[in-house]
């Protein structure tokens, strides 16, 4: 199966299915800049999306703004303005502004539910469902994965604040009452998805730390007895120099159980920040073992709404629902709108290669004298 | 109490107490470059140090070398040589060599026991006690904290490999048999010490992640039901711009229980990589709460062996033993030799200030228009 875009994804003709115009701002002094990167799940016969809604204050030409949630009791927000052209200001990235070594976000994100009977037309709730809370979410909460474990939905999201970003955990059974469990993986970590069942008696998770001196932004696993505490961290898949996933990789939504193992859809970015989706196949009984990895993206930014927007050339998915051989991927396009596409699991499996050992986390035996 | 060096530490007149000349190489083709950063403990009436021994191959003038442990079954090591002056080579840091974006260590570290009856004169074991093992320790193991929990000693150390560095856990009861528990905190993390008792029913730890986009190298806490799995990560103390601990801070050995709370000796580095020791006081029942923080270092590089060496201007401690009001700190000086000094707990407490709220992890309400 392939559509006009030339990859393995059959995009919804209705794309984009949710845009900022569909989302009511959370406060009268904010506008919705982007709606993106939804978690996805089924509940009570409907499809739910947990959208990331990124808001910012009204823009003035002479100023660059950043926005921070207060955590000192009053639950308001603070707008920080920087004069455009200030030599101490770096505003080259539309998502982040850096001033004298301190980084701020230009938007503040919360999570909001949207519901659909057909999986295509969604009605977005009028109010935020989950907002940042406490001192470690003052820059917002983002990019939530939703994994169903029995009757419990397990939400893993990025908690962002001035001192870093880690993975927060919230659980719910009814999508009305939510329980917060704090930060389960410390900074710098994001792109974290819990497996939909225990393996070898333990919960498992994929996560994405970012290392500075050694390594980079790779996919790791960990295990847990209780979802709250995690250990046995292992690096299982690394960026591939010179390829489409050379700069950063990170998990999408929960891996999908197939007859061949756990199929994990992941995102990869290259050195020019172009984000595509690819696939990994993990051993059924030992998901720290990568059996196979797709050589090429299974989906890449090609439609107009994927190439142009708030941050162009991005397809990024952290939510999908599965029906037999079909996986419906919900994804953020250009960090600005929400879209949908269908992929066939059998087609994803078909194009996998046994994993190239040179891409495994252990560095291969180096050339004894690379400069001779 | 103060000695001629002008800080609160009374240095051993015998310093340095262990030097590379006291340590037999682990292999005939390696030399011991540095012995540093010991964990410290009492066992069976003696004082034990778990030294970090950093080795490297014989040096040739025209080459810069790095060294890696194999993890593919054969337990050997690999030397990588780079031609000095190669434009793709950055060898400006004696500890790390970077070639075409990949970082390597110039030395390979293992851990080795040394024993003493008087806490001053140590006999170093002939062979390594613990070496790197498996794919996530190919660059060695470093800087072990030792915490006694009942009859069990809990060893937390830096596990280093090409894709990052995390915190590994090993336990022992007799210092002969050791049990490895894998990586308990993922990359990039080090400087991790377990508290010597449970608090509120949970084990507690201090750790030091390093964040890139937001924040930096701060001290965090976490808690655990079993020492193996960790959650509820919180940033509790941050670097202080313009001060002696402006660039990086990290825990020393296990915090010391006092009548006023948990006294944590930590290291801080400034922007010129000068490493000093300072102190934090944490709430007895809630060690995520910083009660007070020392304004100045309690120990700073001043003796000749602290100012000159493999990496000069460094005092770094991850091991101490406590007798009443006296804490004997064992420390690495200039990343090259092991030294000892005494500090009085009462004197450390006396110079503490109630914590400056502006240094707390939550960024203060920002100036609404800092460039106006």
Explain this structure to me?
The structure is a homodimer of 372-residue chains. In chain A, 3% of the residues lie in helices and 49% in strands. Chain A has 372 residues and is mainly beta. Chain A has a single domain, classed as Tachylectin-2, Chain A (5 Propeller). In chain A, strands 19, 20, 21, 22, 23 and 27 form a six-stranded antiparallel β-sheet that branches. A four-stranded antiparallel β-sheet of chain A has the order 1-26-25-24. A four-stranded antiparallel β-sheet of chain A has the order 2-3-9-10, with no helix packed on it. The longest helix of chain A is centred in the last third of the chain and has 6 residues, at 345-350. Chain A is globular. The N and C termini of chain A lie far apart (49 Å). The model of chain A is unreliable at 357-372 (pLDDT under 50). Chains A and B meet through strand 5, strand 13, strand 14, strand 17 and strand 18 of A and strand 5, strand 13, strand 14, strand 17 and strand 18 of B.
**Which structural class should the secondary elements of chain A be placed in?**
mainly beta
Summed up, the domain count of chain A is 1
Q: State the share of residues found in helices of chain A, binned by percent.
A: under 10%
Categorize the overall geometry of chain A. Answer: globular
Gap from first CA to last CA of chain A: 49 Å
Number of helical elements of chain A: 2
State the total count of DSSP E strands of chain A: 27
Strand content of chain A: over 45%
Q: What's the architecture of chain A in CATH terms?
A: 5 Propeller
Question: Spans of chain A with pLDDT under 50 lasting ≥5 residues?
Answer: 357-372
Q: What is the fold named in CATH at topology level of chain A?
A: Tachylectin-2, Chain A
Report the average pLDDT across residues of chain A: 92
* Radius of gyration of chain A using CA atoms only: 20 Å
Major sheet of chain A: 6 strands, antiparallel
Give the oligomeric state of the chains in this entry, treating copies of one chain as homo and distinct chains as hetero. Answer: homodimer
The SSE string of chain A, one letter per element, is EEEEEEEEEEEEEEEEEEEEEEEHEEEHE
CATH superfamily of chain A, called what?
Glycosyl hydrolase domain, family 43
CATH class of chain A: Mainly Beta
């Amino acid at each position: 199966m392939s559509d006009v875009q030339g990859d393995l994804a059959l995009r919804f003709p209705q794309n984009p299915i949710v845009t900022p115009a569909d989302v009511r701002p959370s406060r009268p002094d904010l506008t919705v800049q982007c709606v993106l990167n939804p978690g996805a799940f089924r509940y009570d016969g409907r499809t739910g999306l947990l959208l990331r809604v990124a808001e910012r204050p009204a823009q003035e030409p002479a100023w660059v703004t950043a926005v921070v949630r207060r955590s000192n009791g009053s639950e308001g927000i603070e707008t920080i303005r920087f004069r455009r052209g200030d030599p101490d200001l770096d505003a080259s990235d539309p998502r982040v502004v850096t001033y004298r070594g301190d980084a701020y976000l230009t938007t503040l994100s919360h999570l909001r539910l949207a519901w659909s009977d057909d999986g295509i037309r969604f009605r977005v709730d009028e109010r935020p469902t989950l907002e940042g809370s406490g001192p470690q979410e003052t820059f917002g909460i983002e990019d939530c994965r939703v994994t169903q474990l029995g009757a419990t939905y397990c939400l893993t999201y990025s908690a962002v604040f001035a001192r870093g970003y880690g993975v927060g955990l919230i659980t719910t059974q009814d999508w009305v009452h939510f329980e917060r469990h704090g930060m389960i993986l410390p900074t710098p970590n994001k792109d974290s998805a819990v497996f939909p069942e225990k393996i070898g008696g333990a919960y498992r998770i994929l996560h994405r730390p970012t290392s500075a001196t050694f390594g980079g932004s790779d996919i790791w696993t960990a295990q847990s007895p209780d979802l709250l505490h995690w250990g046995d961290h292992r690096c299982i898949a690394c960026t591939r120099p010179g390829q489409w996933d050379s700069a950063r990789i990170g998990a999408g939504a929960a891996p999908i159980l197939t007859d061949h193992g756990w199929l994990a859809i992941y995102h990869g970015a290259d050195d020019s920040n172009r984000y595509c989706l690819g696939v990994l196949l993990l051993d059924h009984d030992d998901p720290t073992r990568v059996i196979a990895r797709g050589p090429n993206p299974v989906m890449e930014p090609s439609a107009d709404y994927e190439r142009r927007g708030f941050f162009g050339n991005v397809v990024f998915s952290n939510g999908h629902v599965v029906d037999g051989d079909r996986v419906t991927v919900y994804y953020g396009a250009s960090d600005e709108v929400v879209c949908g596409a269908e992929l066939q699991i059998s087609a994803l499996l078909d194009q996998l290669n046994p994993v190239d050992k040179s891409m495994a986390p252990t560095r291969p035996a180096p050339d004894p004298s690379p400069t001779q």
